[in-house]
Amino acid sequence: MDGRDWGKFLLPYEQTVEELKVKFKTLRTELKKREEFSPIEFVTGRVKRISSILEKAKRLHVPMDKLETGIEDIAGIRIMCQFVEDIERVASIIREREDMILVYEKDYIANTKESGYRSYHMIVEYPVQTGLGMKRVLAEIQIRTLAMNFWATIEHSLNYKYRESLPKELRIRLKKAAEAAFKLDEEMSSIREEIIRAQQLFEDRSNLVSTI
Ligand code: 0O2
What we know:
Elements: H1 3-35, E1 42-47, H2 50-59, H3 67-70, E2 75-81, H4 84-96, E3 101-107, E4 120-130, E5 133-145, H5 146-162, H6 168-190, H7 192-211
Helix pairs in contact: 5-6
Keywords: ATP-binding, Kinase, Nucleotide-binding, Transferase
Subunit structure: Homotetramer.
Family: Belongs to the RelA/SpoT family.
């Protein structure tokens, strides 16, 4: 595939990421208004880089004409939550949605990866309306806490820098940091109700000030 072909190939994925970002951001606003607390803190999305698609295709032995089904995270959405408990709530909302079909789930929270990585992954099929008609696109939705995201973002950049050869010392320290992030999530969960009440109070005050 040359540059023009890649540009066309990625179009439905770009549209999927944009649409899903809007949908989950809207869901955040809605839940905040309806329930005074949203299990969604913030949402990001990205289309996988071409070099990263090629690397993964090579690693998983996916032929170039099978990328659409063989690589499930070309379209990627990340949903950040404050508390571990919120992850299941978001996952159950996604399971019930009628604008996407759940294909399968990967629970890297119950089954932490060897690296220390924790996150909840859901692979969905999203029907995107293109100029050529409807196209079913696979997308990966990663749901994680702020602490899980902090760790994963840093580990990802270190891995990118060192490629396969992350120094052992650094790997050990990253595992320790993953344990600290796990403990932080546990601590925050234990005072969840207190934190939520404080945040609501704070928001009520801010809203009051802005209407004066
Ligand atoms: P990009 O384009 O840089 O975002 P895998 O063999 O690890 O690729 P797996 O384990 O089935 O496949 O994971 P999955 O569900 O395909 O998701 C891969 C994505 O999950 C990665 O994207 C990361 O975003 C995240 N991820 C998985 N494992 C780790 C990990 O150990 N550390 C970090 N920081 N992130 C992880 P890519 O491949 O990085 O692509």
